[in-house]
Amino acid sequence: MQKFRAYISEHGASQGGSGVPPLSYLEPMPKQRRDAAATLAKAALAPLATNPDLRNLLKKIHKAAEQTIDIISQDTLLYAAPAQKTKQGPRCVTHELCLDKDSR
Q1: Reduced to 3 states, what is the DSSP secondary structure of residue 58?
Q2: Nearest-5° angle of CA 69, CA 73, CA 77?
Q3: pTM for the whole thing?
Q4: Burial letters for 26-39: b for 16+ Cβ neighbours within 10 Å, e otherwise?
Q5: What's the sign of the alpha-carbon dihedral 22, 24, 30, 36?
Q6: Residue 45 DSSP symbol
Q7: Which of 17, 23, 78, 86 has its CA 20 to 30 A from that of 103?
Q8: pLDDT, tens only, 9-37
Q9: Chain-wide mean pLDDT for the chain?
């Protein structure tokens, strides 16, 4: 907000008596808002505009994180019943987490 006010105060003073409110007035005119937004956007995008390696890195990261959702081909339901229970029960993955029934 401080940069925005500084921009408005600089450009508001240069327009003289063209209906611009006094500099102590905090609400900028619509044209001043547009000009300030364009200036700040240009300044924010400068690192991307001047650094092709950064742009390519961002594209690579975006491509790696992107998910493709297939809405054209339809899936076919193969089985719709409750899961079957096994006689063994849950299996132990590691010895530390699940001890055998005999060792209790």
Answers
A1: helix
A2: 100
A3: 0.37
A4: eebbeebeeebeee
A5: positive
A6: H
A7: 86
A8: 777 655 454 555 555 567 888 999 999 99
A9: 77
